[in-house]
Fold these 2 entries.
Entry 1:
Amino acid sequence: MKKADKFVKNAAGRLVPTVVNGKKVIPFMGVNKYRPTHKGAAPRVPTIIDYPQDCNKVVDSLKDALIKSGLKDGMTLSTHHHYRNGDYVANWIFDIAAELGVKDLVWLPSAAFPCHAPIIKHLESGVVHHIEGSLNGPLGDFCSHGKMKGLGYLRSHGGRYRAVADGELHIDIAVLAASASDMMGNANGVHGKHPFGPMSFSKVDSKNADRTIVVTDTLIDFPCYPWEIMGNDVDFVVVVDEVGDPQKIVSGTTRITKSPDRLLIAEYAAKFVEAAGILHDGMNFQAGAGGTSLAFVDFIQQMMIEKGIKARSMIGGSTKYLVDMMNNGRADYIFDGQTFGLEAISSLRDNPRHIPIDVYESYDFHAKSNLVQMMDLIVLGSTEVDVNFNANCVTHSDGRMLHGIGGYQNCLMAKCTIIAVPTFRDRIPVIKDEVTTLVAPGELVDVIVTERGIAINPLRTDLIEATRNSGLPIRDIRDIKNEIDDLCGVPAKPKLSDEAVAVVEWVDGTILDTIHKIEE
Amino acid sequence: MAKIASAGNYGPKIRSDCMVTVELTDSGGVHIELISKVKDFFGDHIIALAQDEMKFFGIKNANVKIEDRGALDFVITARIEAALKRADNTITKSYLPEMKKHCLYKSAKDALRRSRLYLPGGSPKLMLNAGLHGADAIILDLEDSVHPDEKDSARILVRNALRTIDFKGAERMVRINQLPLGFEDLKEIINENVHVILIPKCESKQQVIDIDESIKKIKKAKKQVYLMPIIESAKGVMHAYEIALASKNVIALTLGLEDYTADIGVTRSKSEDECFFAKSMVLNAAKAAGVQAIDTVFSDVNDMVGLYENVKQAKALGFDGKGCIHPRQIRVIHEAFLPSQEELAKAQQIVEAYTTAKKEGKGVVSLGSKMIDAPVVKQAQHVLKMAKIGGMIK
């Protein structure tokens, strides 16, 4: 079986396979051009008489639970990434699978992190066939070198939810880390020894997997409430000493950047938002946890104070900054699919205005509406953008996989999407003629803000008009690119082979782009 | 003669710089070894560039190791040149990068100098985006921020930076070293469209005259280079007036209070009360000589409130500008130099009265029952100019 076969040029002009890991896939047809017609997932139908009458589903070990779940060759196993780089569960699963001699598994994490490097040995030995989800750090590097047996399949958070919920992607066993659970399997991420926040990414798994295993280090008396994971959906509960390390949830910085250049980017973005009339009383906006995003939020907050206005809602991943902002009366609500830091977790647990959301609520393509559509503004980062406003967040300019898609594509549904990036990193220009990997189609990217100026997508004539006399450095994106090419030089094209190592899915399930093997 | 020498910086925290090690050999041709995080993108280019530079200097045999952390061409060539000149001190030629058009703008004697941003002359990373933060001037510093052993290398780097980086209209200043080392600095950088030379630890008019003469000798173009003596000793304070008058190219006096307080044997306090005499002297000397007076730097980069108050105070004393060591200070300084609403209203009245009087052919300008003298009108016009630049009025 070829990893990828029958390549065609899709609507974005990218050469993509129509067969991936033996399954037929549909090439990207354009934004809002394709409607998946699945009828929904069809998980195994359980019967209550097959479960303990006292509802005690606690078993001796994860190995025991996996065996009882019928773990066998070729199965698809899912995990969530709420412990991010402090996740233990995924490594345990595949160590056990190796011990049991199981082969050709598909791992479906909602995201992978550098802590998952031990899975490389299981990819090498054939325990794991391929990964569908995100590939970054050591796993991304492994895949980029063409060493993974199957083709990597990158989905956005929303795309993963869609695929699981509509039946395109069947989960055999979901193994879900929870910071607290009762014996029924009612579980959450806000109680217990090692809380991490909401369990957004895993709800869809618990509803649609044939078997669901909850792993926790804090077993509490019934009821464990809120039950983000419902015991009714859980087959087994496993209790371990430590389920994850919340200290490693934060991998980068969650402090306001001190870099003058990044502060300048954040300031331009905030001023643009003001000049474009997006900043208004009752606005809804997304505020990320990175240093530049936090600086942006800080500028927005100052403007709100000056104008005496407040936001109706903000979407995190929230940090102490966002929580303080809400508590200081600058926003009515925070929505969170992930929290960063204890202040944010306790706020989520204790403040009814701090609302946990799952991917269905925030990003789902099959939903009849969703939260990001309500957002007046979302600010994203990027590894690369191009002169047609296309953006890349999964590969570096050398073609190596760096990050998962996360919510990146899903956020493009907001009313205004701003990408805030420096014009160059280590002499490598960020603005290209064409992105190495297409993740965000240019027609959905409204504004690119850099430290050298602001480029507005020509499609957004309204934004161009609104900011015409703002005094902000609004420039043609090609003009900014020329300045940077003059400063840095034009880099050589990355050496990439024709061989595909992964594909990037668009939110509707079609194939947007192909990631190629690195040539040494 | 040293056969092997290095120049530059390399390490996990270093960015936009490189370390070059040159070993001059007797045979075998020129070998370039490149270690670079951008090798995939610029590797061939960097090696070709290094080869070209070696050829330019007539080096036939050498091993060159470039350990790169994303340095731009002008940095790489500067580091190679510095390493080469250290390995062979008979080399005198200069490998000059192309002078970019955006480096060729002019300045003026009475240019606005509210903020001047210091940049260490040995740190390319801080130079690249320095022009983006709106400072009225940038200072490429060869003096205190550069280690004594790195003066030669920094000089070449600053020269190349002056030919390459777009400082976006900011006045281009270089702080040279104290004499006689400063003469070496002048030779390297004076023909690179430097607008202003800052003279450190200036204590006598003779120092200004010497520098002015030296510039005249080595400067190819006719356009003069302005001078800004830095007064940072008790002696300098006493001679401030004659220093300001020493050359018509002196456009401002500025103060260095770190060294001054050390010189008079006190600790510099936040209020800077101990510097009141020096400030007043330098300010008065500058104004008497018809040049600008620029205040010292504010060194706590995290204290924006303190900076604002400090600049307000400087403005109240009569200073025209302030030194800064971090880009985020620039905005605060510019804000503090804005006139107050009262000052603005008063200035508008005065200028209006002056315009009316002029129109009516009156020799005397009066506002209400008060007569207004020419310096007052001039000051009012200055206030309006500052208000306009700051966006307070159209």
Entry 2:
Amino acid sequence: MNILVCFKTVPDLEMLDDQDWVIDKNHQIDTSFLKPSLDIYDESALEIALTLLDASEKVKVPIELNALTIDGPGATPVLKTLKALRFKRVVRIDSQDDLRFKPRAIASVLTQYVRKQAPQDVLLLGRQTSVSENAKTHLLTAEMLGWPCITQVAGIELVDRSHLTVTSQVDEAWLQQRIQTPCVLSVGDAPNTYMRVPTLKDRMHHGKRPVETLSIGDFQLPEETEKLIDLEVTRHARPGILIQGETPEKKARKLYEVYLKERLQLL
Amino acid sequence: MPLKREQIVESLKNIVGENHVVTDEQVLKESSVDRFRRFEAYHGVYRLPLPAAVVYVNSTDDVAAVIKFANQNTINVVPRTGHSATEGGLETALENSVVVDASGMNQILDIDTYNMQATVQCGASLQELDDRLREQGYTTGHSPQSKPLAQLGGLVATRSIGQFSTLYGGIEDMVVGLEAVFPDGGITRIKNVPRRAAGPDIRHVIIGNEGMLCFITEVTVKIFRYFPENNQFLGYTLDNMKTGFEILREVMVNGYRPSVARLYDPEDGSYHFSHFAENKCVLIFVAEGVKPIADATATAIEDIVARYDECVKVDPRLIEKWFAHLNWDPANLAAEKAEIMETRNVCNTTEISAAWGLINDIYEVCMQRVRNEIPDLTLLGGHSSHSYLNGTNLYFVYFYNVVDCKPEEELTKYHLAIKKIIVEETIKAGGSMCHHHGVGKHRTHWIEQEYGSSYYILRKLKSAFDPNNIMNMGTIIPLEK
């Protein structure tokens, strides 16, 4: 079973101060001075894929893990880490273009890659990235490929060479279903999915193989139907009150009497 | 005849009041360790003797009364404030110990901007003190990574150092005066004067004692004018640690005092700076102070670095932004716990210091030996973060996957095995095995080698001030078998 995990590295926006949120004429916020890291949903997708690889010997289903990103050279450290973690084919489609709000273009590239370059049985993606938050790429990719798509996936188990048991969240419930491949799976809030860390020896043995690099120019991009017109920073600041008091006990008493007591009585 | 556990608890309640003596089992478990055994603690494994109680004191008189009682009954006392120690200094090594927690003694007593000093109780939060000072245009100049967690008593007790030490010094350079309680219950005050030549500097009996001689209850530290608007951040990539050490040395011996002077090796550098320095060493400087000094310092450093062709300057914002998020607060600790529990990937550190002529050799031999001898490493690197006229420190950083062993075997298999290599190689070369975390309870094995013939002085201090052996036994000086 060939599994392709599509991932993205993103800057840690938590590290931006208020004064950093300046939108330039290209609708960009300068994050070049922030260290990029794996998007959290993509990290979960990668770890879930590795868990499948762990289980593959036991259930005697051979698995080939592959990973792909559309990004600049800044993604190279993550790609090397994935090599060290036994991802077989690790591909970066080089793009310096602004693809933040173009899920149709990304889905089209992924579709072309799977159809023309490297056939897969399962596409695993994080549900959205913190940068553009489209939450559409997985759905559009599934539509273009003509494959079923399950969203909010939290766990996957191997059944046989063409079936998976997929656990996903539906409203407040967990849904478990047996799925036939090929399929697109979009990973949501998945517990216990911090990505494992390769050892230095793994990096020496597996991580030195070159990362495969393709150009976005090798793919045909669809005509743009949506255009980014404007970006606006939204502020979520709320007023706060500093409770004054001589001792923690007095502060706690004031907190209870003035702010909590009445609310608690309503519960 | 030693008191029974119940008698100890009852007596403590009589001294400080029932509400201030905690015997809840989970609290006792968590109070038997510090961050040194955090992997075991995360897994609910507590192997050390549980203390009889944790006593929350509110005044120097409380501390004196509790310690006097412990001294009369030969009960081991573990002094504690912020509970952020990393070297086992807060572990309860003996049965029926009493952990004396002074985090409630958290008042900032005086900020004297004319005489440039601030006096606080031992449980005062460094973050709170520095925030208060900065509002008025001053700073403590002390900024360890534990700043959001640590409290002044513990910082002084462990000879803490901060990220801006090259300008402001370590805590030992900042402490003006102190109040401390000794085992007989006596309260000692060392007055606040700029300098004196009235015999040995007895502040240094107390600073760095790690609770094995006395309990620090009040601290007066210097404060400094704060000019963040003049800060200049400088960053460079380069190929070799040896070149980096040479540059650091040149900056220091020429008398420049950047607040920050750091050198990262390629592994440690990649961990922090992969977005601009993959597989490169990284040099970082921050020049601060009044504008003429900050400007002159930055210009001089740029001139020195320019003489080394392999150095490439990077955008200062890369350094400024990174620095702004270096410290660890409770949210970082919670995130670390979650990540460790899932990945079993653990980070630990060992910090040493040595003269300029030794430091690169120590770096190379330690890196080689640890890499060859320790299994399951996922990162092994190091950086120099505190430089002096005659040498610098090295902070070895290592991550490993805990594989094929129980939580209680993790330390022996990895952290202590690595620490042993680093400590032994450092002492053999002529450096110091502890730069700024303190000895705690897990480097005591080498304390005699560390001190050499001067160990006599350390032993005499212990026997003179703590003749009944009640103060944080097993810390700095090993337990006798």
